[in-house]
């Protein structure tokens, strides 16, 4: 009984802190206040420790890795987003990815705590299919891949939202042609405004678009790095899952719905990596492929569990 109270304390404290951290990051995204950076970073560290405390408590209670049902998997996924937040905070001083990761951790945490019924949140013994040494290898690597791939896909969605129209012209370096294009659309600017004002306006436009171009290149780089890492973990998860399936069900691959969607997800991200390497398709084309992966991951992760079909419906 004491384990239950400790778990609830960890879960609800971490949920409250994640909400505050997300709010602070959204405010800081627009106003860039240094003190908010400090508070949000410390808050995420505390939320990460609380989520870790929940997973540790559940481990001592059940005597196995807490990945036996949907609730535990969602909490582990939220833990993964928090961990990525702390890592990105060390490597990325501009903290552009912080609002994405904080919001992701909060939404997953909220879905686990507020949406799932109480019976699904209770600890239980593992079903026979999960009583294997492959549990830690397969499930943990797969969930880590989900967190990393979702992060990369969300960055790609942000990239698509700003990579459009005339920004592309600036990014490829056709600055003069783009300005002439503006003058054709607005001839009064060339005729009625003094040359100094036009020059200052043009310089300011170049400054704004150069910052957007830098943001585009950074987002494209981080998307590629995140998806490359997540793709590696997903590959390990699929291979270890095939070996485990052979031990449990007698075949490496049975075209179970979970296996099929995992393969589709793997292929989409493989296509993204191939497109990303080809410089002709860098930018918008690769970002569209990465964005598709966002929906496929959720279908693969939640679709089978919520529909209750296939060999993986015990989650």
Oligomer: single chain
Main sheet, how many strands, which sense, barrel? none
Order of helices and strands: HHHHHHHHHHHH
Overall geometry: flat
| SS-based class | mainly alpha
Query: In what range is the share of β-strand residues?
Result: under 5%
Subcellular location: Membrane
Transmembrane segments: 12-31, 67-86, 98-116, 136-160, 222-245, 260-277, 289-311
GO molecular function: heme binding
Membrane topology: Multi-pass membrane protein
Helix and strand topology:
Blueprint: H1 2-31, H2 34-62, H3 70-91, H4 98-115, H5 118-121, H6 134-162, H7 167-171, H8 175-185, H9 187-192, H10 195-249, H11 257-277, H12 284-307
Helix pairs in contact: 1-2, 1-4, 2-3, 3-4, 3-6, 6-10, 6-12, 10-11, 11-12
Task: Please explain how this structure is put together.
The chain has helices at 2-31, 34-62, 70-91, 98-115, 118-121, 134-162, 167-171, 175-185, 187-192, 195-249, 257-277, 284-307. With 315 residues, it is mostly helical.
What would you say about this model in short?
The protein has helices at 2-31, 34-62, 70-91, 98-115, 118-121, 134-162, 167-171, 175-185, 187-192, 195-249, 257-277, 284-307. By secondary structure, the protein is mainly alpha-helical.
